[in-house]
Specification:
The protein has three helices and seven strands, in the order ααβββββββα. The chain is α+β, with helices and mostly antiparallel strands. Strands 1-2-3-4 form a four-stranded antiparallel sheet, with helices on one face. α1 runs antiparallel to α2.
Length: 144
C-alpha cells in the first residue's frame, strides 16, 4: 500500500479543521473525527468541499471522489470516470424563479440510491467568481 505524503496529511488536517467550524451535532462531529478520519489515514487527499447547510463533504482523490454525509452516517465512493460536470449560467436570461443566477453540478450516473449530486448555486453576482473557481478545480481534477 502506498504511503501518505506530508502534503496529503496537511490537506487531511485542513479538511478536519474546516469541519470543526460547522454547526454539527456531537454525534456528527464524532463521526467525522473518528470514523471518517480513520478512513483518511491511508489515502492521498487532493482537496475537499464542504456543504455548510447540511454538513456533507466531498473529498477529491486521484481517481475518485468520496461523499461523506453525517446525517446518514454514510460514505459513498465514486470512480472519477463515472462523474460529470454541468454548468448553467442564467445571468443573460435573468435568474430562475428561485433567484439562481449561476449553478454548477458534479454528478454521477449510478443507481438512484447511490448517486452523487454535488450542487453549488449563486444568487448574487458577487458569488459567481468563487463558484467559477470551484468549477475550474473540478474540471482540472476530472481531466487529470
Amino acid at each position: 500500500m502506498r504511503g501518505v505524503d506530508g502534503s496529503s496529511q496537511g490537506k487531511i488536517q485542513e479538511y478536519l479543521d474546516d469541519l470543526s467550524n460547522l454547526q454539527l451535532s456531537r454525534e456528527e462531529f464524532d463521526w467525522y473525527n473518528i470514523d471518517v478520519a480513520s478512513m483518511l489515514s491511508h489515502i492521498q487527499l487532493l482537496g475537499h468541499e464542504i456543504n455548510e447547510s447540511d454538513g456533507s463533504s466531498l473529498l477529491f482523490l486521484e481517481k475518485s471522489a468520496i461523499l461523506c454525509s453525517p446525517e446518514e452516517s454514510a460514505i459513498h465512493h465514486f470512480p472519477k470516470n463515472m462523474l460529470h460536470c454541468f454548468v448553467d449560467d442564467f445571468r443573460r436570461l435573468g435568474s430562475q424563479d428561485d433567484g439562481i443566477l449561476f449553478k454548477a453540478e458534479l454528478f454521477s450516473i449510478s443507481p438512484s440510491q447511490e448517486q452523487l449530486c454535488w450542487e453549488r448555486c449563486c444568487r448574487s453576482e458577487l458569488e459567481v467568481p468563487s463558484l467559477q473557481s470551484a468549477v475550474s478545480k473540478w474540471l482540472w481534477w476530472l481531466n487529470s
